[in-house]
Amino acid sequence: MNAPLPLSALHNVTAADLSALPVIQKWVSFASVSRDSNLPIIEWTRDLLEAQGIECHLSYDDTGKKANLWATLPAHDGESKIGGLVLSGHTDVVPVDGQPWVTDPFDAQVIGDKLYGRGVTDMKSYGATALMMVPELLKRKLKKPLHLAFSYDEEVGCIGVHRLIADMQARGFKPAGCIVGEPTGMQVVIAHKGKHGYKTSVRGHEAHSSLTPLGVNAVEIACEFVMHLKSMHRTLAKDGPFDAVYDVPHTSIHTGVIAGGTALNIIPRDCDVAWEIRHHHLNSPDELFAQAKAFADSLIPAMQEVAPDTGITHVRTSMLPGFATDAQSGIARLCFTCAGTDTESGAGKVSFGTEASLFHNAGVPTIVCGPGHIAQAHQPNEWVTLEQLAWCERFMRKLADEICVS
Ligand SMILES: [Zn+2]
Question: In whole angstroms, what is the distance from residue 49 CA to residue 76 CA?
């Protein structure tokens, strides 16, 4: 058993000091891009755990080509369902297509003080470090059960974890806390924003572009709507409400895609706008949506005066709830201890969404804490520092001290 290093020593570590490095490199070697099957990484991990006598359960998607893995290390008294922790992460990664990678993204390499590869930050290092710890946890015997939960299709909207959590509940598991290892720079994150995505569709009326009074220009109306969203965003950024703990302290509204029109000499009939609200707990996304919709509705009478079959419709395309865990909660205090940021002043809140909110809403108090920084996620030449990897190992070893009998 390796004693946890002091925080001050972490920046001096080399690849040779990192016990989890071979497991991380193995996990990165599975090109588990969300559009492809994740079964190779899941089955390899299942085999690794089953060889140590650990019971694993796979829950598949409807195609049978993707699966979540739930593995339970029982407590020393045999308890496997009630209490204990979940260490959770996703196995899928975003694509590398078109990105200027210098190294092979699926052959993780240490260069200088960093490890390069797809998923080293988002988020294979955390899950692989947890796997590295399993033999030690078994040897030292657990006070309460410990579960490893690895999901599919997180990067395309936290899809797989819904099934994983439903399965967890149906099989009677009631963990007392969950640590999601998304990249937070090993800061203990106790809250993140919620995100609602929408598609707004403008149906105008086609006409020859010389006859503007006879047409309803869907692109121009969509632009008016986008500018209204922008003005709402500016008001939020200027007047709040603010939660200063977030990196972006206000709720934000953003337009991601606008698509419409077919040719310069045709007044466009259709235009679609994809946009989102990322909100903290001081704003209601439904109220903000209602404001945006009221503006769109105000444009419709003038459209229908020209052509009655015109209009503006909205659908919500995605919804990820936010979450906030009490900084005084047991799971938060445990993580402050393990991360070495001993007090709640080290607690963070982030603007990106994770699977944490889904565990949290299923009644499992959850925090987010993992190696690497979100700024490196999804990038070409994605990297994580060896210091962050060492910090994650230190976290896991401190955790073992807390949750093991000996
Ligand atoms: Zn991630």
Answer: 17
Cα 352 to averaged position of ligand 1 atoms, centre (Å): 10
User: Which tens digit of pLDDT belongs to each residue from 231-288?
Assistant: 999 999 999 999 988 889 999 999 999 999 999 999 999 999 999 999 998 999 999 9
Report the DSSP beta bridge partners of residue 115.
110, 384
Amino acid type, 314: H
Q: State in Å: Cα 182 to ligand 1 middle.
A: 5
Distance 64 CA to ligand 1 centre (A): 22
Sign of the C-alpha dihedral computed for residues 200, 203, 207 and 213 taken in this order: negative
Enter the tokens of residue 106. 């699926």
DSSP bridge pairs for 269: none
Beta bridge partners of 146: 73, 85
Q: How far is CA 84 from CA 87, 89, 190, 364, 399, in A?
A: 10, 17, 19, 10, 12
Helices 124-140, 21-29: inter-axial angle, 10-degree rounding: 130
Q: How many CB atoms lie under 10 A from the CB of residue 36? A: 15
Say how many Å lie between the CA of residue 355 and the centre of ligand 1. 9
Helices and strands: H and E segment counts in the chain: 9, 18
For the segment 367-388, what is each residue's pLDDT rounded down to a tens digit? 999 999 999 999 999 999 999 9
Residue 376 CA to ligand 1 center (angstroms) comes to 11
Q: Assess contact for 372 and 24: CB atoms under 8 A.
A: no
- Tell me the CA–centroid distance for residue 29 and ligand 1, in Å: 17
| Total number of residues shown for the chain | 406
Torsion of CA 104, 108, 109, 112, to 10 degrees: 110
3-state SS of the chain: helix, strand, coil percent to 5?
Answer: 35, 25, 40
DSSP strand pairing (146-151 vs 85-90)? parallel
DSSP state of 88: E
Q: What angle do CA 4, 142, 38 make, to 5 degrees?
A: 85
Question: What are the structure tokens assigned to 265, written together?
Answer: 């000499």
Determine phi and psi for 159, rounding to 5 degrees. Answer: -85, -50
